[in-house]
Amino acid sequence: MLKISDLKVNYGGIEAVKGITFNVPEKSIVTLIGANGAGKSTTLRSISGLVKPRSGKIEFLGEDITGKDPTQIVSRGITLVPEGRKIFPDLTVLENLKLGAYMRKDNLDSDLKWVYDLFPRLKERSWQLGGTLSGGEQQMLAVGRALMSRPKVMMMDEPSLGLAPLIVRGIFDIIREVNKQGVTILLIEQNANMALQTADIGYVMETGRITLSGSGKDLLSDDAVKRAYLGT
Ligand SMILES: Nc1ncnc2c1ncn2[C@@H]1O[C@H](COP(=O)(O)OP(=O)(O)OP(=O)(O)O)[C@@H](O)[C@H]1O
Ligand SMILES: [Mg+2]
Description:
27% strand; 10 helices; binds adenosine-5'-triphosphate; Rossmann fold; 6-stranded mixed beta sheet; binds magnesium ion; 4-stranded antiparallel beta sheet; alpha/beta
């Protein structure tokens, strides 16, 4: 569904992504794991159109979308839940959610119902200001806002960061549920254990390159992965 070929991304003189190739099959959960600074966020940002790749190709459903603008990418059905959530603190939960659907004004009610069914907590808090939500609730809001664009692919940049273990499990339950409902997931995680347990396919990134790939289960039992990312 999403096909990345020999993608290279620079920030000035810094080569953040040095030629990576990977695929995200339709209706799968794919995870990218790797150390800080490996280029994971940069990869998602370039798929989203937020940074322009230096070279390489990004194809979505057979169409070359390399270098397109973020709004064009969203309208094709690719959305990003960014690192650090980036919700609007001075807007209510409902206003934040409506902004996620800015590309389309039709069917807001059914989309809202979908998101509120997934996150009853957001429904209870629909008039609360985003900035006053707890960390876990803000993450729910960030995911809910992304879903309001009715994505075909939802990319998530470290959704579990800074959340308590119970909340993290809740976030992963939601990822699985949304995936079951047909949304393809591309997930970046520091929590490699949870990510690999959840994912169909995993890729390990090190300093701008993909160094390992395999099924989530295979990577979980890989000795190098265990030592570097699972702490066992
Ligand atoms: N806007 C920027 N300008 C210059 N360099 C950047 C910029 N954004 C990222 N980089 C650099 O690119 C490299 C890859 O960063 P990136 O954020 O993609 O890593 P990451 O794998 O997401 O790391 P983390 O796990 O810490 O989030 C890093 O060396 C980083 O310092
Ligand atoms: Mg990152």
